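A quick aside before the break. I want you to see a complete sequence-to-structure record at least once, exactly as it would be stored in a machine-readable document. Don't worry about memorizing anything.
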Amino acid sequence: MTLEEIARLAGCSRSTVSRVINHDPHVSPEMRERVWQIIKEHDFQPNLAARALAGRRSRVIGLVIPHPLSTIFTDPYFSVLIQGCAKACDERGYYLMLSLVLRQEDDTYQWLIHARHIDGLLLAPPLMDDPFVQHLLAKRLPLVMIGRIPGRTDISSVNVDNLKGAILATQHLLKLGYSKIATITGLMSLVGAYDRLEGYLCALREAGIEPHPEYIQGGDWSEASGKYAMQRLLQVTPRPDAVFAANDSMAVGAIKAIQAAGLKVPDDIAVVGFDNLPVATTIDPPLTTVHHPIEQIGFLAAATLIEQLETCTTQAAKVSVQHIVLPTRLIVRMSCGAALRRSTHPKTH
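That is the input. The structure line, written in tokens, reads:
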């Protein structure tokens, strides 16, 4: 089956068939439906390489994750994020290509930019002062960030409100009567980790509490780092009575370290996480956490990029920059001790 044969069956020109395949809007709905029906009936598979050469579009979107492979394939955050991106691409007839940037040298970046086997890029999550971003802007490659870089208001982004989410988690612990609240941060090269630390500090200072310097311990988002950070916190005097971990994986590590020390969660130390990943419901005790709409963020980021690409195709006007920030909410389970504290301190009327 060729384009000419499809055109003959549809009663149109070969160029019309080509425009339909390349999603050109200047084709009547009736003709578009007729061409696609013939394509489906004959199981015609357009040559993507030829389409890319003819229309200068591949309908492929790159998802760049500038993080170590050990993180990408062990942190459940990324699998959920990729699923959201893939759903948006599938619904709109695009393909998602995962690009793992293993090196930070310019030649790696230059290859991604110059190969042009992709129409645009999703960057998830961007690093502080990442040189890759400047390279992409210089080459005018469409880009959407999953997360944000301070000061870069010229690039579309989709993000969660990390600051308010951390404030919500810390305020919850304060309302339950905890006063010696520690935190385990993520990698501070990422804005999300910085924002969650700031939210923790803001909530404490609003309550008139200046955090103990040793109550702030660094992690790298992994369960192991949460365990080691919690082990350090257990050596601090006075010992914390609650911990806010910047993600669920580190919160799980913290719970395991507390239990390994012969202590109980939440009886001795309460724990709250961030993300609401599936592990939050399987850990014992179930984890109180901040819900992070990861899949929705991936979907919206890919949809935003596709909208930019389609706008560039159909309009001469400059594509507008969008900044989408999704809200968070607290999911209360057993690890924070809410039920325990309510039963210990019943309300009086």
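Two observations worth writing down. The first helix runs from residue 3 to 10. The chain has three domains: 3-46, 60-160+295-326, 162-292+330-344. We'll return to this after the break.
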